[in-house]
């Protein structure tokens, strides 16, 4: 085999390496053909690997992470006319080698409401952007909205996505697409907790929606009044908190209820739980009254953490709905709650969690819990009468009253009522003309004319419609004396001529619905 033929296989770049070529040339004659091929291809692979791995100065580690000056941009300017706002953030390469960003892009692409500029370059997607070692670059983001366009979502959400060696990171973008009153932190306490503080009696009206970002805290001795038709929206994890002696007065009507919900109004989020935090009525807050409210799609609906007094309940809630909560609908700790025409539906753990004793009176209430069965394995209603203090000592807190009249407690679990009582203790309770799902012995005096394990036949549990259908056993099975005290149901229908169990009377449903 001619020696020049073997040299033909060498890349031109190797031909310039005189020593390497000469080595091959002078040694070919000394090798047999098979041995030469083994040596030749071994050398060729070694040389190819060496030259292909030349260091180009960029860090190619797929686990490399960028650092951002902030993890989200909030465009909270209130627009009164068509307008735009610009925010910026910095991207840091904290490593000791250069990095090349494969791409920086808007997740919404050409459909995005946002525009971005990365170190002077604009577009919805930019490629091969370099950041020197221990250096940074600026990203500017602009959004333009028409706040009077009611077709826009209340919240316009997108993100700037960074692809570095296949590692994906993003910075969230949040803008308000409609004109609103924005409640965002205006105070930082000595522990670094940021919140918005309401320091004087305040009224939230129905003129514009309110958007709460973070914690909104009502100071001691202050009353927050919410008028009929008001819409209160909470950003992710946002909550409304009432401190000592402060009060919440919700004054909705049947025609114009007050709505508390998340700030994502797209159809996907219509019934999604866990979108915001809770309304927390902390210890020693007082005289809370909620009438005609819808509290939905959060983590906890109402957290009531104070006893009040026997004559003045901590919370009086009427003609209201609490639904789609990832944890609990009503979480009360040693409190005093009076509820009438209350619907609590679809909660991830408990619809009612009544802990550490207390005083409770529920009349014409519907507890309907059809939360996903692969998630919820707890009873819809749980009663607890003890806790362990910081010294490890068990403290028993008995119930002063547990009364349920003309109430439905039903769901997709076999047991929907549970007691977590300290060993050796017992509690008095009454279910008066109720319909419940339970495995308890209901022959005791605690149960008065109560229907057990009979499906109430709600109209459509899948679509969260808990009206009764014409064959429901709850129809006409209520206590009329209770109905005389609460003559109209949650929808405003008269119940004095025929008393049905639950918050909603049976009314024939039109077929087109």
Task: Tell me about this structure.
This protein is elongated. It is mainly β and 513 residues long. The protein is built from five helices and 40 strands. It folds into four domains: 3-52, no CATH class; 67-176, Immunoglobulin-like (Sandwich); 194-295, no CATH class; 299-453, no CATH class. It starts with a helix and ends in a 28-residue tail after the last helix.
Short description:
With 513 residues, the protein is mainly beta. It has 4 domains: 3-52, no CATH class; 67-176, Immunoglobulins (Immunoglobulin-like, Sandwich); 194-295, no CATH class; 299-453, no CATH class. The protein has a 26-stranded mixed beta sheet that branches.
Proportion in β-strands: 35-45%
Helical proportion, percent range: under 10%
- Computed over alpha carbons, the radius of gyration is 33 Å
Spatial separation of the terminal alpha carbons: 90 Å
* Structure summary, number of beta strands: 40
Q: Give me the secondary-structure category.
A: mainly beta
**How many DSSP helices?**
5
The structural domain count equals 4
List the helices and strands and how they pair.
Elements: H1 3-7, H2 12-15, H3 18-28, H4 33-52, E1 67-68, E2 72-75, E3 83-93, E4 99-106, E5 114-118, E6 121-122, E7 125-131, E8 135-145, E9 155-164, E10 167-176, E11 181-183, E12 187-188, E13 194-198, E14 202-204, E15 210-212, E16 215-218, E17 223-227, E18 231-234, E19 239-242, E20 247-251, E21 258-262, E22 279-281, E23 288-291, E24 293-296, E25 300-304, E26 315-325, E27 328-347, E28 350-369, E29 381-384, E30 386-388, E31 394-396, E32 399-405, E33 408-411, E34 417-420, E35 430-432, E36 435-436, E37 447-448, E38 451-452, E39 458-460, E40 465-468, H5 480-485
Parallel strand pairs: 2-10, 11-15, 13-16, 14-17, 15-18, 16-19, 17-20, 18-21, 19-22, 20-23, 21-24, 22-25, 23-26, 24-26, 25-27, 26-27, 27-28, 28-29, 28-32, 28-33, 29-34, 32-35, 33-36, 35-37, 36-38
Antiparallel strand pairs: 1-3, 3-8, 4-7, 4-9, 5-6, 5-8, 9-10, 12-13, 30-31, 39-40
